[in-house]
């Protein structure tokens, strides 16, 4: 198994505050790798560093062995490393199908032309159908995004990210805020999209981590506290203390 994504001694300071400090992370190709830790631990910042939305204060980032530390976020996305975008990047007034078609045309470099006429967008119809099918939204394709549940919006968000054809997909709290009934749908969706790509996910729900993830990295106050399988992490006294101290159940 090869390492597809690697952070070496990566740090990020915000005005002297160390949000991420000397983090080493090695993600194996094909894994679902969880990033866990209390709120404020630096998980989202680390995602921003990996995808080059943030520039690192120090350290290096490698994608498939290539140093991407100096690359921009669009370049990194085209090389196959994509994070799911926040739900606000979904257009509520468009149908689910049109949201996916707009995301597909982004891949072809026309990101600012979301008003393209529908005959141009229709080029992407087949691919849009496949993506909607993959995330279980085919029957809702014609519905407006504003009309569907939060869970379906998160599934749509994953479809629009998959439109970029990522080899490595970063998901930041994919089930946060979701009704309990929608959680199994997203868990199964993650399992299925992970079949032919690598997934790194921030997740607070530890039973989801246990059922989905091959490996877990624990971040506390910007630093890696532990790394291992879920079982190893769960039995680590320092992790238990950090979690219990922060009010989480382990
Ligand atoms: N743009 C920023 N400017 C200043 N501080 C930030 C910025 N982004 C995040 N932080 C701080 O960095 C720390 C880590 O934040 P974050 O990465 O969002 O944590 P997590 O995702 O683990 O909850 C927090 O204390 C947060 O307030
Ligand atoms: Mg976060």
TrEMBL record:
<dbReference type="InterPro" id="IPR003439">
    <property type="entry name" value="ABC_transporter-like_ATP-bd"/>
</dbReference>
<dbReference type="InterPro" id="IPR027417">
    <property type="entry name" value="P-loop_NTPase"/>
</dbReference>
<protein>
    <submittedName>
        <fullName>ATP-binding cassette domain-containing protein</fullName>
    </submittedName>
</protein>
<keyword id="KW-0547">Nucleotide-binding</keyword>
<dbReference type="InterPro" id="IPR003593">
    <property type="entry name" value="AAA+_ATPase"/>
</dbReference>
<dbReference type="InterPro" id="IPR032823">
    <property type="entry name" value="BCA_ABC_TP_C"/>
</dbReference>
<dbReference type="InterPro" id="IPR051120">
    <property type="entry name" value="ABC_AA/LPS_Transport"/>
</dbReference>
<dbReference type="Pfam" id="PF12399">
    <property type="entry name" value="BCA_ABC_TP_C"/>
</dbReference>
<dbReference type="GO" id="GO:0005524">
    <property type="term" value="F:ATP binding"/>
</dbReference>
<dbReference type="Pfam" id="PF00005">
    <property type="entry name" value="ABC_tran"/>
</dbReference>
<keyword id="KW-0067">ATP-binding</keyword>
<feature type="domain" description="ABC transporter">
    <location>
        <begin position="5"/>
        <end position="246"/>
    </location>
</feature>
<keyword id="KW-0813">Transport</keyword>
